[in-house]
Amino acid sequence: MKQAPRIGRAIERAVADREPTLPRSKPGTIRPDDKGAITRWVRERFRASDWSLDVPGVHPGSGLDYDALLDIFEEHGRDFRAETPALNRFVLAELQARFEELGRIPTVREFNESMGLAVLAWIVKRFAGTVRDVKLRRLTRAYAHRKRALGYGDRPIGTATGSLAHRVAEFGRVTVRKA
Fold it and tell me: What's the pLDDT tens digit per position in 82-114?
């Protein structure tokens, strides 16, 4: 019974469904003469931005709020919120492609929303096990055995029941602010 890939795809689809459609023309925005201006603006804004992940709610299995659960994962060597060079390259590429296609320099709000969703998509891919940019500490033998006995042995680290991963995909919010 291979459920892990199916769960991973469902989690990734949940984030993809949240993508906003940006209008091609918007009053007060700048249409540059060359696409290089868009790329430069996006790069400068990206380098000057910082982000944080907030996940509302309480985990049904542990009774902890989801943010506290992510903190525990981080303490145990499984930092799903880590900012890595791979995450930065992915997010910057997504932003550049999105806004070059748009043909105008985005508003700060559009930039922040798009960057937040790109970061969230990468974090969800970590839960699904489709990207491996963060070295996750192995499970202890006892926990791995218990997880296997409960029928969750085929799922990636951090996704025994999938509750946290689904919550991050459905309700996770990445707040982007100027660094």
Answer: 999 999 999 999 999 999 888 888 899 999 999
Q: How crowded is residue 91: how many other Cβ atoms within 10 Å of its Cβ?
A: 25
| Residue 14's pLDDT band (cuts 50, 70, 90) | low
CA torsion, ordered 99, 97, 165, 173, to nearest 10 deg:
-20
8 A C-beta contact, residue 173 and residue 54? yes
DSSP letter for 36, please.
Answer: H
Q: Which two tokens stand for residue 10?
A: 């469902």
If you write DSSP's letter for every residue of 85-134 in order, what string do you get? Answer: HHHHHHHHHHHHHHHHHHTSPPPHHHHHHHHHHHHHHHHHHHHHTS---S
CA 55 and chain centroid, separation: 11
Give the residue from 81, 60, 59, 56 showing the smallest Cα distance to 69. Answer: 59
Q: Which string of b and e fits 123-136 if b means at least 16 CB within 10 Å?
A: bbbbbbbebeebeb
Looking from the CA of 174 toward its CB, the CA atoms found within 13 Å total 27
What is the distance between the alpha carbons of residues 1 and 154, in angstroms, rounded to a whole number? 8
b/e map of 155-171 (b: 16 or more CB within 10 Å)?
Answer: bbbbbbbbbbbbbbbee
